[in-house]
Amino acid sequence: MLRDTRADQAYFDNVVEYLTTRCESNDRRFERPVEKWADPKMIGQVAGDVMKQRWDRFSALYSQGASVEVLRAEFDAVLSDAERALRLELEFLPIEQRVVRFAFGNSKDFYREWLSLVSLALAFRVDDATFDRVVAAVEFGWGDRLIDRLIASRRPLHPVGETLSFPKIVGALNEAFDAADPSQTIEKYLKNWYTAWKGIWGWGGHESLGKNLYSGYWAFEATGVVVALGIDGTLFRSNEFYPGDLLTSGASA
């Protein structure tokens, strides 16, 4: 059943099909030998950039009304692409370029991808081996206090950093870990979600539906905090950005 009413079912069906083609094209691109690339550094850069289409497809599937089983399978595809991106970034991007590209507070898009990947792993209650893959895939996000806290909810020995990459955006989610009533801070976060994330990839896309730029506005990261803290997620069901259907029958809804 359609979850996002900013567009109709036919729109999201079309967007999923369009993004499926884009993702398949991206996969073929990385099958090319290194010598076919004009500059090998582009391999590492493109590997990270094309994650946008993979995340858009996951979001569009959720908006379209895909089942939890379909979304769980798509999560595996997202994780595999994230692992590929990290591997190629480490192999082909010079360290000085990586330092700037992935510096804390530099890219909201990369940060949101790392945060979403860990949060979805918690929401889907993935097995330990898969969770370890997720932790490894977000290596460039280690040291961020919120990402580390989410990881530490399943890996208590994981060190938790003191730095919050985007405090003005996710400060409320981070505060939830220390709050007497964390549901209030999460509710505050969700209420301001769209405004806080201004400028991210796809922001404002609902105003350009004819260009396949909109895949849905979903605070996937909120589900991770809900699971990590054992909160009753049904409290947020009425919020338009909260993807409550992601949580399986064994998790808080």
TrEMBL record:
Every PoNi C-terminal domain range: 144-246
Pfam family, one: PoNi_N
UniProt cross-references to InterPro entries, sorted A to Z: PA2201-like_C, PoNi_C, PoNi_N
Domain PoNi N-terminal: 42-135
UniProt name for this protein: PoNi C-terminal domain-containing protein
